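Lay summary

Proteins are chains of building blocks that fold into shapes. Our project writes down both the chain and a compact code for its shape. Here are two examples, one after the other.
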Amino acid sequence: MRRRLLIAACAAALFGVTPAALAPTALADDGILVSAQGRDAYSRPLPSLETGRGEAFRHGRSLFRQAWLLAPSAESAGLDGLGPLFNRLSCIACHVKNGRGEPPDGAGDVMRSTLLRLGLPGAGPHGEPAPHPVYGDQLNPDGIPGVPGEGKATLVWHEREETLAGGETVRLRRPEVLLRDLAYGPLGADVLTSVRLAPPVFGLGLLEAVPESAILALAAGNGGRPNMVWDVTKGASALGRFGLKANQPSLRQQNAGALAGDIGITSTLFPDEACTAAQTACRAAANPRRPELTDAQLDALTLYVQALAVPERRNADDPVVRAGGRLFADLGCASCHAPTLTTGPHALPELAGRTIHPYTDLLLHDLGDGLADGRPDFLATGREWRTPPLWGIGLAEPIAGRAFYLHDGRARTLGEAILWHGGQAQPARDAFRDLPPERRAELLAFIRSL
């Protein structure tokens, strides 16, 4: 790695080429994979990460785990500014162990690592969802002293039973949003809501390094669609690749948006507090010290997320797993969950020129009415979702003790998640349902090996 960086630095000095523009030829998985052993398998840095960037990685990790404080705070060391409205106190509170969240367990439970997006029919000036005029674009349940939280949301579950080939029965559940304690009155009959489970955050730097041309080439062949979204830094439309509907163009903007929306921490990208005109107490309590997050802090947090490594596969040579891999391709799952991509140039040289196996195309696909939230997001319709990466998914339950899948956490098993697929994925879903039990077990063993 040091030799590659030295070559890049010499080329930059001689020819005026920046190191970020120099992508090495495709490298093997060495340097980007870490051991799958231990409950911190989602939290380790790239093995190839240069020593000089280790301090920034550790700084970003502390910011990711930091519980933000009320401002002003003499003990905060620059980590104050919580709210006035917020969902949680830290990033790690939702992305526990850098993995996925979990939904409420019923009407008596609360949203801990799940949030409720809001909107109205129509779109904002750049194509983004039109916010609710009183509650904004998400429901934040908590406020700092003197500022009422917007309200509480939880889920009640409705189940139905489905019988698979061979006689196995599966209970599929779907959520219904239950609202209470709304501070500013009812949301209105035309409100659009979407339940969002916190997704895992490892491996995202490698996905950021996949060239746009490669993603668009996949769209030309598999029926997926790119989401074109607003890039705040560029002041222009750009390819979306992060977020459950691919509504963020970069990890820097994804991080800044989450800090602003979920914790109430402003930055140069999002300098305004999330207080609507009707929320007078929120506006009066807004921190005069803005932005609350410095650019250096945002850089460190972004590098941390970019440099989180991917856990290595397990049991890849097991005959059952190999048979499941063939089924994954034969049923058409690999059309959207693309097994192999190659990264291009990136500002973090360790990410450039890598052959990776994320099992995603980063594109939008219509998954049918069963998974529809009815809330458009830039070009994404209410039935479309970005294909989530599958790498590391088999560790979700061992790391957290239990796991939930899909955008709202309705699926309690990988089999349930497959059975909820509709729309473009309906043929693959039906084929999975009709497989003999032993073949379904092979497919699930393959997915758990990723």
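And here is the second example, written the same way.
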Amino acid sequence: MKPAELLRARVHALWQKKGPVSAALLPFAWITGLVVRRRKRRALAQPAPPSALPTVVVGNLVVGGTGKTPVVIAIAHKLRALGWTPGIVSRGYGAQQGSDPRTGQGPLDAAEFGDEPALIARATGAPVAVHPQRSRARQALVQRFPDVDVVISDDGLQHLALSRDVEIVVQDARGIGNGRLLPAGPLREPAAKLAEVDFIVDNGAPFSEGPAAGHAADGVSFDNGRIDGGGQAVETSRPRRGRPERIGMRLRPTSAEHLSSGVRVAWPDWVARHRNTPMAAVAAIGQPARFFDTLRGAGLRLERALALPDHDAYEQTPFTALNQALIAITAKDAVKCGRFADPRVWVVHVEASFSDPSWLDRLAKLLGDAAAQRH
């Protein structure tokens, strides 16, 4: 693990408890809270202009990846299967940002659109628009692709300039950490936000023993509009629908793709073929340990695990420094590594599996109701 990634892992570990370091940073967290409250009051006083299209935002409360992208992909697939024509908007983190939004469809250049939008575009075939101001991205998306009738925002929960009809929070095993705001904790906004959203998706939650739908997040309990561990819920211009519904999610490997040739092999067959092969793995994602644990859990012989900074641009190949016979990477890394002609590299593709798949139908109904109200 590189020094920057080691430091990041230690910071996330510190944020899981209320120790002396966190306490020392509380004055700065209060400033964060003040900024968040001012933004919400401003948004309530001057609501974001409504869009002609229903919009769902998929975001998180904590810093770092929680598994939003697979949820976005699953939603896009479901909506298309139900007859919708979804489009995606994103900030395009890591891309070479210009003054105007970028739009595209199909295989996109990660350097221009960002790795996550490029991955979503390839996985779903949906049109994509990127810009730090997601409302401008949505406007550009509609202008370029007039057939789009529903918008999915990849991240943007805190981007209040983007009007939305449905909000989804994706959490992982960290939950809300120590419940404190940045930099004393991992939260971008108070945990009270969990009381306002429509769905909470728990990445990694065990299905057989996961919490029932409508229960609060770990360390947090709903009680008459209040939520312990993050302060009082703030009013919002978006209509409330009662308690959030909570869904368990696991990321299940489905296949491995040879990066150079594009040949795909079903995951069980690929694991059986390479179970005893010395292997390395490289990941530039929010939580690389999850990827490495997936490989180890499959019984693969993982000798080297190289964690790179999230959204790393892969300006130089990291593969030449690895001497293992096989190298596994994630699909998010693959959109940036196509130019590296290393025959050892395989891409592990995953898909989201939910404790209650019918939640996507209920999501679609909320969007359909929102669309009907516009006519």
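What can we say about the second shape? The chain is about 30% helix and 20% strand.
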